[in-house]
Amino acid sequence: MNNCHQPYDVVLLPPKDIAQEAIYLSKLIAEKFPVEFVLDGKTKYPHVTLYQLEIPDKNLDRVKNKLDRIFHKQKKITNQLTNFSNYETFISWDSHKTQNLYDLHQKVVDQLNVLRDGLKVSVVLEAFDSFTHQQKQELDKFGAIGVLQNFHPHITITRIKNLFDLGEVLSMLPVKKLTHVNFEKVALGKLSTHGTVVAILKEFNLT
Q: Between 12 and which of 38, 111, 135, 183 could a Cys-Cys bridge form, CB atoms 3.0 to 4.6 Å apart?
């Protein structure tokens, strides 16, 4: 039976050199520790999430049309990637939450939230055993977590299977200087388990 709704991710795609570095680090961790996934740029894409949402199939074309309008003449996002961190067992390469990036995130959320028809992101519901009161409110209002004031831009490197490996994993990652990045592409991606983007459905070029 064909599902009537699917999870998607509106994402910034990093330039080639940053994507390759994220893939390298993902593979590096996977060589030494059990992980849930490894980035490869083909079936697991490095990305910075702008907004995850569950969309009814009937609304997908409307979402694509809205994204066309949002990103038409949108200037590229220049940002910095900083240090590595974790959220539970997710390992992230963090990005600054600049005003330009936050404004774009807010615009995407404001325009697309109504098109999810009240659905919550199934992948998010499956990823965690419990949610805080604040996260439950986010899920009710936006269908996702990490939205607006809780927006935390980052590239997820991998998700380790064992929390007790966390200290060793973080210590093996290189110390990063501030890395200036020009994000020149945005995409609508197919969202899968552990927040992975497993297919790019439509790309948008930023000017």
A: 183
DSSP per position, 112-134: HGGGGTT---HHHHHH-S---HH
Q: How far, in Å, CA of 27 to CA of 6, rounded?
A: 28
Residues of the chain where predicted confidence (pLDDT) is lower than 50: 1
C-alpha distances in Å from residue 203, one per residue of 86, 159, 206: 28, 26, 10
SS3 label, residue 184: coil
Domains assigned to the chain: 5-205 (3.90.1140.10)
Location of structure tokens 């996702």: 144
pTM: 0.95
8 A C-beta contact, residue 82 and residue 55: no
Three-state SS for 36? coil
CA distances from residue 117 to 40, 67, 71, 131, 151 in whole angstroms, order as listed: 33, 17, 23, 22, 22
**204 and 67 in contact (C-beta within 8 Å)?**
yes
| End-to-end CA, the chain | 41
